[in-house]
Amino acid sequence: MSLCLISAGVTKTLAVAAFTLVWTHSIEKIDWRENWRVTPQGLELVEARVKGSGAGMEPPPEARLVDGWFVWQPHRVPMPEVVLGNSGKAGEWRLCTKGTCRTLSTILGHDVGPHPTTMRACD
Question: Which residues contact 12 (CB under 8 A, 6 or more apart)?
Fold first, then answer.
């Protein structure tokens, strides 16, 4: 399995089984991170963490504080695809694998700008 990213008619395939999606909240200006796994059933959200709370980003009651991050395991079924929007007010989505993070624009080879990006598991 691989991860496919699709935006503005461009598709990139990344040979990864797991990745971290990172973004900066547009109002609070703090990072939110999600660990994902690519499975035959779709994209599975394994863990979420945030460095603070407020402005609609409160961690759930089961979150625990670990090294300054609120961490929890969302309980969701794998999703066939995830669509990422871009407000333009908080910088870009970043995708991290093997300790390296890159913006979606860098990965896709064009300025993502206002275009949504679809993530899905692919062969």
Answer: 4, 5, 107, 108, 109
Q: What torsion do the CA atoms of 103, 92, 69, 38 make, to the nearest 10 degrees? A: -50
Kind of pairing between the strands at 81-84 and 117-122: antiparallel
Q: What is the pLDDT of residues 1-45, one digit of tens each?
A: 899 999 999 999 999 999 999 988 666 677 889 999 999 999 999
pLDDT tier at 89 (50, 70, 90 boundaries)? Answer: low
Region of 3 on the Ramachandran plot (φ > 0 left; ψ -120 to 50 alpha; else beta): beta
Structure tokens at 21: 């999606």
Q: Beta-strand (E) ranges in 26-85?
A: 31-39, 42-50, 64-66, 69-72, 81-84
Q: How far apart are CA 121 and CA 31, in angstroms?
A: 25
